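Is this the right way to post structure tokens for a design question? Let me know if I should format differently. Anyway, here goes:
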């Protein structure tokens, strides 16, 4: 006896809508890009924070090295190196987004050559901006403490520009390594297709088209050149063949139990055998649908029993 609990699983196979367009309410939003402190925004801030921390650490090392070379730890000796490192670090941290966004093009641009050109250009712009704003900021800070800062553009620009190109390359490399490590550590997320919709089929007869949820269909019966779809609360007669509808409905759990009849096994609550080998399928609507012994094996396979 089949009690209806061993129902076949349906396949998410769906016939396209009559006009080929999904209703606007069926469209799904793109996941994974909202929320700036989580997801993409969170990863961006984490990478930015780590590189900024490295910049500060490098500045501290440079100050300590200057103190060691000066042989004194007095403020008079360290004032210049400290102010120089602070102003340089502040400008670098403000310019980090320029390098980060150019590195991001490696994963968002299909042509890597274009991405590398953008990175190279951003490094040049970074170096020019760093020198310009660093010198301006030092003039401002030194003036506030009653001192002066001398920067000889003709003699020092080339050296500083070369140093900044090297630092820009190292920063870009660190951003790239952080992004690779983050991507490798994240579990793969399977997103639902943007056009995913509940299962549906369309019953067409000339210019008329009716959208129906396969679960609502109880049985399908051949009627000459037509096929009758029996739903719990309605019946639809469309032009077609039972063989064609069997092929279309099979993914949704429909099984032929008679030469002229298909039933929705998800709505079968019991199978009652007859002495002559035939059987009757009792539907959840209370309807009793006769089945032929010729199709017992197909029904038994769906039930998962050999009775």
């Amino acid at each position: 006896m089949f009690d209806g609990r061993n129902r076949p699983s349906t396949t998410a196979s769906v016939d396209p809508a009559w006009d080929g367009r999904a209703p606007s309410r069926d469209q799904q939003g793109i996941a994974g890009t909202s929320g700036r402190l989580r997801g993409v925004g969170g990863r961006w801030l984490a990478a930015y924070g780590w590189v900024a921390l490295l910049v500060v650490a490098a500045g501290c090392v440079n100050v300590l090295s200057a103190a060691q070379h000066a042989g004194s730890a007095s403020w008079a000796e360290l004032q210049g190196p400290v102010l120089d490192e602070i102003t340089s670090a502040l400008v670098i941290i403000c310019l980090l987004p320029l390098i980060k966004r150019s590195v991001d093009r490696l994963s968002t641009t299909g042509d890597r050559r274009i991405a590398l050109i953008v990175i190279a250009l951003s490094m040049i712009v970074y170096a020019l901006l760093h020198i310009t704003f660093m010198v301006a900021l030092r003039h401002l800070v030194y003036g506030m403490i009653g001192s002066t800062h001398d920067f000889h553009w003709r003699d020092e620009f080339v050296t500083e520009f070369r140093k900044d190109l090297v630092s820009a390359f190292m920063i870009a490399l660190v951003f790239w390594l952080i992004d690779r490590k983050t991507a490798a550590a994240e579990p793969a997320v399977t997103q639902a297709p943007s056009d995913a919709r509940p299962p549906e089929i369309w019953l067409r007869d000339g210019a008329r088209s009716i959208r129906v949820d396969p679960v609502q269909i109880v049985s399908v019966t051949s009627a000459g050149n037509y096929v009758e779809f029996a739903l719990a609360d309605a019946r639809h007669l469309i032009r077609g063949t039972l063989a064609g509808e069997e092929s279309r409905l099979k993914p949704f759990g429909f099984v032929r139990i008679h030469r002229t009849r298909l039933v929705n096994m998800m709505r079968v609550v019991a199978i009652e055998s007859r002495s002559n080998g035939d059987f009757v399928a009792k539907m959840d609507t209370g309807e009793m649908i006769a089945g032929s012994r010729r199709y017992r094996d197909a029904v038994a396979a769906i039930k998962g029993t050999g009775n």
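Format looks fine. Someone answered above. Worth noting: The chain has a mean pLDDT of 76. The first helix runs from residue 40 to 70.
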